[in-house]
Amino acid sequence: RGLNITNELGLFLFKKSVFFKSSLLLAFFLILEEIYMRVLQIEAPESFIRFMLSEPIIFGVFTTIIIAPILEEFVFRGFLLSQLRNTLGGWAAIGLSSLTWTSLHFQYELKILFILFVLGLILGFLRWQYNSLFLVMALHAINNLVAFAFAYFTFV
User: What's the Cα-to-Cα distance from 13 to each of 27, 39, 132, rounded to whole Å?
Assistant: First the structure.
């Protein structure tokens, strides 16, 4: 089809300033997420906690912080988002790819799926805005690192 894979998937590095601004947005989201979870009295999913903290612990670290962000972002905000953007336009592509990514996490309750959908919208927007799949992979990894650290220091 003559696609430029590098451009279509957003395989571009990002500037430090973009990473800093995006990290601040993620931090703001994480604060709002914590408030949301506390106000609605939502507990962290036990199955996710058990998975992350299973022995050997390096398995949880590797899959949660490295493998999941790379694979999920490649599929949903790399391939799917770029193809949907070409047919539906930017915002529809962000919404539909975020909804599809959220459905991958169907084992969680609806209140948690909502917050995952919002995170998907943020990551989709940043992918679209800066055309860097590596940026959203890094942010997804940071998000999962925060979740892992919370689980580790809370439940171990």
Answer: 21, 38, 6
